Structures are given as structure tokens and as C-alpha cells.
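for ur thesis appendix - M18 family aminopeptidase. copy paste whatever u need, i formatted it the way the template wanted (i think)
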Amino acid sequence: MSDHSADTALVDRLIDFLKRSPSPWHATANLAARLEAAGYRPLSETDRWELSPGDKIYVTRNDSAIVALQLPRAPLTALRMVGAHTDSPALRLKPEPAIVNKGWLQLGVQVYGGALLAPWFDRDLGLAGRVHVRRADGGLQGVLLNVDEPIAIIPSLAIHLDREANSGRPLNAQTQMAPLLMQGGNAPDLDRLLKQWIAREHGLEGCEIVDFELGFYDIQPPSRVGINGELLASARLDNLLSCFIGVEALLGASGEEGAVFVANDHEEVGSASACGAQGPFLADVLRRVNAALGETGDEGFVRLIQRSLMISCDNAHAVHPNFADKHDPHHGPLINAGPVIKVNASQRYATNSATGALFRELCREADVPVQQFVTRADMGCGSTIGPITATELGVPTIDVGVPQFGMHSIRETAGTRDPEYLIRALVAFFDRSCLDID
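the 3d part is after this line
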């Protein structure tokens, strides 16, 4: 493949993954299925672990976060870690969502993460997430639900009724963004519909809805955009694109070195959860793996972590042709020009000169172009799992990502060539025998 054309098969796989992953729970299930198909075996956190050199394993927590690990056949001395997150900004249902208003059944929502609200209007919305039911035999069961059809919409208000609509009118998620579900409906109708959808997807007849974590999503499928297909438009590119890239790289590596892929949940709301980067999930897994291989005690674990490196992969802000002044003039990453090293002096990104130098070397070895991003000095900066993982685990870390437009929109845009660039760099990372920097 030349550097001027996208890998068609790779982009096809990416589009399929994005389409089948409308929620963090679906994304994690799809990542797990891909790993199992490649020979990784699942471990339960409640079981005793027995591991051997060369094992390929994965662990999930809350069904929405995953850690996959390739053990080397030689003694484990260092880990090459790649991190991402499964969640994206969204509109999640409230626990008692039914609203009957002016003859319509609407559903109250909570805004999850820092979502751009305006693009949610006038979209064909489906519903997806996790539901816990009581089966007809009395047992509790958690199931995934994906209603991938246009069941709801948030209509815009006509400009005739709001002449200031194009002048930066603020949006109120409580009063202005409840999706319309059914004309003439009421609360029992929602319960009936949920049961119908679960019966259709899982064959569970006569179940009772006990609890749920559900959110709306745009059912428009991902698509290539542009005369030459240079762009990929899709929901949830931040950060399912990095999840896909991380697993592709892990499966494309030789398996000779110790390699880890982690995808945490709840990054968009601060990462403070049992399955978030601020929680103990990754450290729990790595400590147990180290112990199962015969290295007990804190000293051995600290030595392992300090020989290791984490590459936090989360998308970067590409310079927007219509808003170029929002970027520092010397740090405007371009679409389809390679992965971006993200730098922030206040440690909103975890990159330092040592980790940045190693990533540049990886890109040089893999013949991959590399870019840099830093925010304007008069603007705030977002963050990633990178600084949080570095804080919790103590591992040397770098923040990188694929450049994109429209971050946190209901439909985001990235380049079709950049995923392959970052995969090549991460394969070189997973296969690198020495992580030392003199």
C-alpha cells in the first residue's frame, strides 16, 4: 500500500466495528470476540489464574472495559502498553425517562460527557446499551440491546420561531432535548417496547425490566467521504478508532515481547470508576499476571512497571480549514499526515521528551510520518487516560492520537489513511525488544 491510498480492507473492518459498537458494552464485546478469534482466552477476575509463558489472555470488567495481554515466551521483563477508552459523549436515558407532553411520549435524557449538543437535532436515533432483566424463571440476567432503527428524533425549532437560532443560542438539555418516541404513548408503552426489543434480540419472552443503562445514538452508518474517499465520517470515532487501532496492532505484532492493550470506560466523565483509568482495573490485572508468573511482592512489580511504557491513544484535534485560528500556528495537525504527539506543559497530556523521543523513533523505524499538537496558550486543554494511568500506575507514558475534526459531535470525521499509519507505529512498539532511552 502506498502512503497516498488507504488500506481498503482495514477501513472496511473499521467501519464494521464502528457500526456494531453503539455503546461501550457493545464495543467491549466486539473487541473480546476479535481477540478470541485470534486465540486469546478469557479470564474471570473471580477465578484463580494459572498462566504460562506465551499465553494470550484478556479480562473484562463491568462488560465495558477490557485488558488484553500477550505474554512472551522468554521471562517477562517489560510491558509495551497501549491504552484507549470505550466510551463517547452521548445522551443517556434517565432511570424514569417517560415524559408525556402535548400528546407525545418523550424520553428524558442525561448528557454523558462533554457532548456537542446542536448536532443531535434532526437525527434518526436508535437506542443501545445494557439491560438487566428478571427472566420468567426468576433469574436475573444482563443483556445487550441494540435497537438499530429510527425510533426517536429531537426536532429542531423552526427559525421563524427563534430568529436568534444562528446567533449562538444556548441549549437546555433538560427542557429542549427530550427525544420524541411515540405519539399518544405513555410510560407503560416504553416498558412494553423494551420487552419487545429484548425478546426480538435475545428470545427472552415474558421477562421483567429491572434496570438499564441505555443511550441514544445516530443510526446513520459510517461512510467514506470525499472525492477520493480521504475521510471517514462516523459516530464515536473518539475513541473507538483508537480501540480498533490498538487491537489491530496487538494482533499484528510478532508476540515475542510482553504486550498489553487496555480500553477503559468512563474517560469522558473523568475516569473515576472501577473500570475507569483512575480505578484499579489495569493495576489489578498486571499485579495478578506478575504474581502468576512467580514474581511476588511490590518490588518486582515496580521494577516491571518502570521498565515498561504506556502509549495512550486518544484522537487529536486536526486543524480545521474553517477555524484555523483555533490552533497554534506551528502545531496544527493535518488529516492523513500521520499520528500526533500531544504535549501539554501542565500535564494534561503525559508526554515528556523521553517518551516523545521514543515514539518518534518508532515512527522513523516504521516509515510513518509524525506530527505534534499543543493548544494555544490562551485556550484550555482536554485530557486523556494518559496522565491518569501514569499517576495511578507510575508507568512512563506518552499521549498520541489520530487527527480528527468535530470531536464530541454526534458524527465525527477522520482520515482514512491515518489508522494504518498509527497501527504500523504501534506494531513496531509491540515488537521492540528494548524500551531504554540513553
